[in-house]
């Protein structure tokens, strides 16, 4: 089983997960929609190659773990964390650790061997986002957990080890550093101004427009002022809402359209651009007026390297104003 | 000119440096010691392709910016920061920024087109480390700066855009987050125990030995307890010292031997392993009893991806105990 360990100097947690070293490596040539490989565990017909499904959107007359699904969620076969009882911490001298309790699932985003997410239909995007919400809602019932992160690694440069479109859900027994910093900042802004900083950012960027990618009835896509990565794009609901997983069906359909538009635009600028994305939603105990859920799309065209690891400061060679202009003009 | 921008939510700084987008891309096939390319700006004879040198170790009868050097330091041709007057901050509503004032230099580590650092001689390692120290000492004279980071990107997966062995020095007008967290932790340990946490770690790891790679007269190489990356290795001086750049000649020679041993061992496990390293030395104003300079070697065999960007928590599939055992047994 894996283990959380805390750096005794910086306080930073890591997950030591040796079982993940035996993951298969199954990456096709970039941009290539390879034919459904017999060896791809995520292709329809190969359901036996994954752990049993925990959720699926499938035709009503089909059996679990057989073809007939559109989106399928399974426990990660090489989990970084496992849902095994309570979490517990210990300290060995000045070295703190916790058992690797948590949840690690994989959302398989197409029954077909698609490797570039932008090739999926709007209906498929809707089904995927619906699956994300369903899993987060289900796992939020469990009082042991504190943080839920949906994330995607698309392309080998973005950390994917399997090419077939998929994303992941990790549930943690604590609120991790990036989320803590973000929540503390949003809270500070709320206490100082009485407003939500994300609402203020949306208002300003829609007025100023230089970092705006597009605005639809329900969503805004923009390149953030202090973007860490070239072409980094955030999608935010215009209506203030702290929890992604409470989004209604109309919002999910509108988000699907916005997310697909960003993917298609990004692909138009850099073909088969590798990228990560994350969905940031409020932890359960968070006061709701200061937090605003959103998606962060993080292209990995250049890499974080020694400078970033050493300082925590990112060098980004694409000004977000330039990125937004290119993305605005790219066809959706 | 580039610009520092602060994320108004998390407080995280980034450097927006559009000029860096025009960098040339010159990466040879992995592991291949390609012949000195006429197009490589770092090869001896091509000195005119770089900005003028600011430091070099060279034969006494040779001219600056001509062949005859062993190690050569130049200003980065595509600098993330520039040494242009005072730094100054401003705030545009809730968006803080600073001009991109600082220093960005390149240390060219061999006159020959070597791409794998482990192929360099011990004498060459000594000359490189001597160059690092000379540049940091010179730039520490300047009262405008607060933090000095030597770092290396070796291999395309580790963020290098030029294959010829080199490293970089960035000087910042503030102490960045990773360094602040580390210094605060070291200070906290000192206040609580009266001891240096790095000295305590060295003592414990040398006794326990399961994460020790090797111990020499002056240095210790170990895999840290909460390693972020597979095969992450730290090299620490056994004698308590806060400032790398004040190391005496005997220490530099001993460090060269230790660093070369780690490089050779790492290469023995993963041929041409891509890696970053950083040298962590105390900022000028730091009280000296709590801080202990060291090198962190950060192999990039798997990648930071969506989970890491979303949480700040790293997943590492190589337990440091296993990494240390493999590194211990690998030939130096």
Can you put this structure into words, describing what you see?
Chain A is an alpha+beta fold and 332 residues long. Chain A is built from 6 helices and 15 strands. In chain A, strands 3-4-7-9-8-13-14-12-11-10 form a 10-stranded antiparallel beta sheet, with helices on both faces. In chain A, strand 5 and strand 6 form a beta hairpin. The relative contact order of chain A is 0.13. The interface between A and B is large, with 80 and 80 residues. Strand 2 (13-16) of chain A pairs parallel with strand 15 of chain B.
Into which percentage range does the β-strand content of chain A fall? 15-25%
Integer average pLDDT of chain A: 93
What's the N-to-C terminus distance of chain A? Answer: 44 Å
- Anisotropy-based shape of chain A: globular
Q: What is the ordering of alpha helices and beta strands of chain A?
A: EEEEEEEHEEHHEEEHEEHEH
List the SSEs and their pairings.
The structure is a homodimer of 332-residue chains.
Chain A: E1 3-6, E2 13-16, E3 53-58, E4 69-75, E5 89-92, E6 95-99, E7 103-108, H1 122-140, E8 147-154, E9 166-172, H2 177-193, H3 197-208, E10 212-215, E11 219-222, E12 233-237, H4 249-269, E13 275-280, E14 294-299, H5 306-311, E15 314-316, H6 320-329
Antiparallel strand pairs in A: 1-2, 1-6, 3-4, 4-7, 5-6, 7-9, 8-9, 8-13, 10-11, 11-12, 12-14, 13-14
